[in-house]
Amino acid sequence: MRRLRGSQLVIYTVLILLAGFSLGPLVLMVLNSFRSRLEISMDPMGWPDPFRWQNYVNAWRDASLGTALTNSLMVTGLTVLLTCIVASMAAYALARKRIRAWSGVSLYLLVCTTVPVQLFLIPLFFIFHRLGLVNSRAALAVIYTALYSPFAIFLLRAYFLQVPVELEEAAWVDGASEWQVFTRVLLPVVAPGIMTVALVVGLWSWNEFLLAVTFLQDAALQTAPVQFFRFTGRYVTDWGTMMAAAVIVVLPVIVAFVALQRRFIEGMTAGGVKG
Fold it and tell me: Which of 47, 82, 88, 237 has the lowest CB atom count within 10 Å?
């Protein structure tokens, strides 16, 4: 029992240190969001005295965060929807159909997840400009879908491999079509995996900056991370207002992750199967 308590003490100590290391910057960001630029410059680790709520008002007004958050929500929602649809159908086909070139397909998807987006950013921009798709939130969502689908396909394929084939055979015996089997039998079973994909892809889309600033050049269409960049001054930066804007942009992500963290962890662990 003493050895067990000693090991638990070590584990909890390490976990507390890691939690402090992870949450420390967030706490400092929140505290500095209530302070003035001069106070932060003199003592970045200090306590707000008094609390400057005006920083949030200035951040919301100066960067048009209401419009920016709406744009981010639209792009993220459409990206999540398209990625879940494309990845679920592709993962089902790769899990159930006998594909001789699966090793080649797997290598292709793996390469797609590792190639940096900067390599094809310029030619992609010229193509979209020629097609008139610049300053289109839907077009940006399509790009995100192409970027995030390989990861989603790998993850969802592992879920489909876990589903017994007998479920599909029973549905076929009852007269169900292949589309009905996919939508009414398999999708409810792999719903935890789809929830995991939706959460991960949503976080990636919400925080993405490079593609958003490249393809959404109209200020009225820019997302929250792009508008947040406005607070970076050339000579002087209002750190208090900047930290307030950071809190506003990060808050929806934190709320979503805290609300869905159990499903996220369960989904990531349940999908860990060889295939």
Answer: 47
Q: Give me the DSSP letters along 147-216.
A: HHHHHHHHHHHHHHHHS-HHHHHHHHHTT--HHHIIIIIIHHHTHHHHHHHHHHHHHHHHH--HHHHHH-
The candidate with the shortest Cα–Cα distance to 190, out of 55, 63, 89, is 89
Domains located in the chain, CATH noted: 63-270 (1.10.3720.10)
Contact 198, 191 (CB under 8 A): no
Backbone angles phi, psi at 257, to 5 degrees: -70, -40
Give DSSP secondary structure letters for 43-104. -TT---SS--THHHHHHHHHTTHHHHHHHHHHHHHHHHHHHHHHHHHHHHHHHHS--TTHHH
Rg (CA), the chain: 23
Bond before 50 cis per omega within 30 degrees: yes
Q: What was the pLDDT predicted at 272? A: 47
Q: What is the pLDDT of residues 212-229, one digit of tens each?
A: 999 998 989 999 999 988
- H or E element at residue 126: helix 121-130
Kindly indicate the confidence band of residue 94, based on its pLDDT and cuts at 50, 70 and 90.
confident
Predicted confidence at residue 84, as pLDDT, reads 95
Residue 254 near residue 30 (C-beta atoms within 8 A): no
At 124, which amino acid appears? L
What is the rounded CA–CA span in Å between residue 163 and residue 153?
Answer: 16
